[in-house]
C-alpha cells in the first residue's frame, strides 16, 4: 500500500492546523518546557520494566497495541493479554469489563512512553501510524528526544519516541535541558520511504523508556519517588518533575496539571494497575526496601522484589532482574 504522507496528512491526524499547534498539543503532554537510544536507558542502575493496565474491553485495547504500536501478543486469554517484543513483556492488560473509566483529574497514568531503538524506527512507525490513519494528539522535539503522542481506545496516554545521543544532552547543575519545539517531520521522514510503510511490528529493541504519572502533590511525589524509591531529579518546572537513574533524561515524569489535590485512586476503575522499576543490583533493591519499610510505606514481598504503593495508590514493583 502506498500513501500520500504529507505534512497536511500528519497535521490532520494530530487534529492541528500547523506544526506550532501540534507542538503546543505535545507541550500539554510534556508541560511546555520552553527555553541514545534504549541501550542507554536500559543500562542505567534502574530502569522501567513493564506496565500493567486495567481495561474494559480487552480485545479492543490488545488489538490496538498490537496493530498500532506493533507489539506481539505473547499470551491471551479471556481475562488478560501479555504483549511485548523479542520475547520480553512490556505490557500486560487485565480485563475489567465492569470498571468505570478513570477520570483524567485522578492520580494515575499520564502516559506510557515506548522508546524506539533508533530515529529511523520512529520514522518508520510514524509512516505506519499515518498509513492507518491513527489519530495523534501531538508531536514535538524535546531536544533530548523526538516524540509523538496518542491515546489508546480507553484514553490511556501513549508516547512513541526516539532519543538523541546522550552526548547531545545539555546538563547544567544536575538539570537537563529540554524543550517542546516543533518536530522536524521532513527531516525525520527523510530516513525512510514515506510512501511505502514497512513497519510490520515493533523493533526487537523497543522498551518502555519512561513512565509519566498524574499525582496529587508534586512535593509529596518527589519525597516518595526520589527520597524513598531512589530516583534522581533531572528537571522540575511548571507543575512537573522528572527523575531518572544514571543520568538518563527521565525514567519517570510526574505532574499535577490536571490532578492537583487528587486523593486515593479507585482500584475499581480502569487505568494503571502497576509498573515496575528493575535493577540488576541487589544492594539497590535492598536499600529501596529498607527505605520503604522505615518510611511506613505499605510493602508486599514478591518472589523477585517488592511492591510498594505511592501516596495515591499507584503500585510500583521494585524488582531484581
TrEMBL record:
Keywords: Signal. Pfam families: Glyoxalase (PF00903). Gene3D superfamilies: 2,3-Dihydroxybiphenyl 1,2-Dioxygenase, domain 1. InterPro entries: Glyas_Bleomycin-R_OHBP_Dase, Glyas_Fos-R_dOase_dom, TAT_signal, VOC_core. Residues 1-23 form the signal peptide. SUPFAM superfamilies: Glyoxalase/Bleomycin resistance protein/Dihydroxybiphenyl dioxygenase. Residues 47-163, 207-321 form the VOC domain. This is VOC family protein.
